[in-house]
């Protein structure tokens, strides 16, 4: 019985969201608010448990065992509490210190990851032995694409049509990425249809259509 109620409820919410294809209506707003509320509620509960497991419990264990490494977790706890001082005019400067510390650490970690992955990793990945057709095509493609972004006139004349080949390779790659994203969206639609079409969820579709028809008829009468 519980599974049936959950299946019908999820189907009803999906149909309520899809009513935006008809027009802005109360059913869509209810579904939208429920989705946003459930998402935010889940995020809040998950964050509370993460703070408990990753901070408070470690500090408590550190105090019981005398482990300074675990007791150091009190620092991010204090920084997190300091963020709420943003709502106080008198102590807002303390919140700015916490924000600056978080931003500096985040930017440092991001820069380190970007350099190691997007720069060093890309260079290492581009250096491959030319011992098969795949590696040869890959190396030629990398050279062509790099030359496409060189806008110096003399070099452009020297390499001839190579930059144009790089441009076509970029277009093919972007087309493949776009097609992959479309396939991902279609997989979501297929999963949604797998939820709606099986019985008894299927019986909610004509009910939703009748409601939309009744709403359209009522609106036309009011205009008259």
Describe the structure.
- The relative contact order is 0.07.
- The model has no long low-confidence stretch (mean pLDDT 85).
- By secondary structure, the chain is mainly α.
- The chain has nine helices and no strands.
- It is flat, with a radius of gyration of 29 Å.
- The protein has three domains: 1-72; 82-127; 130-224, no CATH class.
- Helix 1 (2-18) crosses helix 2, helix 4 (74-83) crosses helix 5 (92-126) and helix 6 packs across helix 8 (162-196).
Can you tell me the residue ranges where pLDDT is under 50 for at least 5 consecutive residues?
none
Task: List SSEs in N-to-C order.
Answer: HHHHHHHHH
Mean pLDDT equals 85
Helix fraction, binned, reads: over 70%
Query: How many H/I helical runs?
Result: 9
Number of strand segments:
0
Total separate domains? 3
What is the 3D form?
flat
Which structural class best describes the helix and strand composition? mainly alpha
Please give the alpha-carbon distance between the first and last residues: 46 Å
State Rg: 29 Å
Major beta-sheet overview: none
**Percent strand:** under 5%
């Amino acid at each position: 019985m519980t599974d049936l109620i959950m299946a019908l409820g999820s189907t009803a919410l999906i149909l309520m969201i899809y009513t935006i294809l008809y027009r802005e209506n109360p059913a869509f707003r209810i579904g939208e608010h429920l989705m946003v509320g459930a998402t935010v509620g889940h995020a809040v509960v998950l964050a509370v448990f993460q703070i408990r497991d990753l901070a408070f419990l470690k500090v408590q264990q550190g105090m019981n065992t005398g482990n300074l490494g675990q007791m150091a977790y009190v620092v991010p706890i204090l920084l997190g509490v300091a963020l709420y001082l943003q709502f106080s005019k008198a102590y807002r400067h303390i919140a700015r210190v916490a924000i600056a510390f978080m931003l500096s650490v985040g930017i440092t970690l991001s820069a380190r990851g970007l350099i190691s992955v997007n720069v060093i990793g890309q260079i290492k990945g581009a250096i491959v032995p030319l011992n098969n057709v795949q590696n040869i095509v890959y190396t030629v493609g990398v050279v062509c694409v790099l030359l496409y972004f060189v806008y110096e006139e003399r070099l452009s004349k020297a390499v001839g049509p190579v930059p144009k080949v790089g441009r076509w390779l970029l277009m093919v790659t972007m087309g493949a990425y776009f097609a992959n994203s479309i396939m991902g969206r279609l997989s979501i639609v297929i999963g949604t249809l797998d939820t709606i079409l099986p019985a008894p969820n299927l019986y909610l579709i004509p009910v939703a259509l009748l409601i939309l028809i009744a709403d359209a008829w009522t609106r036309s009468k009011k205009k008259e």
